[in-house]
Amino acid sequence: MERKSVWLGPLREPIRIAMIGFAAATGLIFLWMVAMIFISDNAIGMQEMIRPAGRPMVVLMLFLVAGTLLSTSLFLSDTVGAIEAKPEGFFDYFSLVCARLSMIAIGLIVLVMFYEVVSRYVFSKPTLWANELSLWIAALVFLLAGQYAMQQRSHIRIYVVYDIMPRWMQKTADVISVGLICTFTFALVWGGYNDAMRRLLRMETFGTAWDPPIPGTVKPAILIIIVLVTIQAISNLIADWNKSPEHHSAADDIDEVEIENIRRTLAENK
Questions:
Q1: 83 to each of 77, 94, 261, how far by Cα in Å?
Q2: φ/ψ of residue 259, rounded to 5
Q3: Measured in Å, how far apart are the chain's first and last C-alpha atoms?
Q4: Which of 21, 31, 44, 202 is the most buried (most CB within 10 A)?
């Protein structure tokens, strides 16, 4: 990863401090909640975490978790990997923040499933919430990954015809492609807005023992993130407009950085 600031500049250090502070406070509250399980009959569990009304500690915990995720995503978005496309468009930085959030969420899914496996097979006490929570997080990861793929231009593209076009025709094809994306987004939002709002306003739940509001949150998230993907597509179009023609080959799929890392590792192990 490049350690120099990509876009935060002087705000990088304050955000790093905020990230550490939010994470430390979240850890302390979590330890307090765990301790209350053993010493109190009114301990806060996962059932209460999705029903925070009238529970100040739950509200505080959710606020700290949100602050931790946001500050960490902001901090991590200030660096780009060696194989990542550098941000160029007006919307790229926001997409990078969302991408880092989805990467963190993948780690959370692993932790949730690890907890469930240990609880089920070591202590014979399976949870009621691990499966639904992992599905909930994975749905958001899937959606945010689409936005990241658009920003990185790593979605599936077929260049056989595109590469032989002159630059003016490539630009025309790009405009048509973005136009089709905008049309699809408009149709999706137009057709799904009322249903999404109904589910959101009544916070429709999943119908299980834990009963999280997955339909009430994921359906609106689909519409919101598809709009973000469309804005990113427009940002790409503007950023790429004056670029020289690109020609693609099978060699583009070779990750030279990864190959060099493998060579270095093999040389060190000799």
A1: 14, 19, 12
A2: -60, -40
A3: 26
A4: 44
Predicted local confidence at residue 167, as pLDDT:
92
Burial of 105 (0-12, 13-18, 19+ CB in 10 A): buried
DSSP class per residue in 189-242: HHHHHHHHHHHHHTT----SSS---HHHHHHHHHHHHHHHHHHHHHHHHHHHTT
Can you list the pairs that 167-173 forms with residues at least 24 positions away whose Cβ atoms lie under 8 Å?
167/244, 167/245, 170/245, 171/241
pLDDT tens for each residue of 110-124: 999 999 999 999 989
- Is residue 134 a contact partner of residue 189, using CB atoms and an 8 Å limit? no
Residue 42's pLDDT is what? 85
Q: Could you report the per-residue pLDDT of 235-244, keeping only the tens digit for each?
A: 999 999 998 8
DSSP-based three-state secondary structure for 270:
coil
- When pLDDT is cut at 50, 70 and 90, the band that residue 262 belongs to is confident
The DSSP code sequence of 141-153 is: HHHHHHHHHHHHT
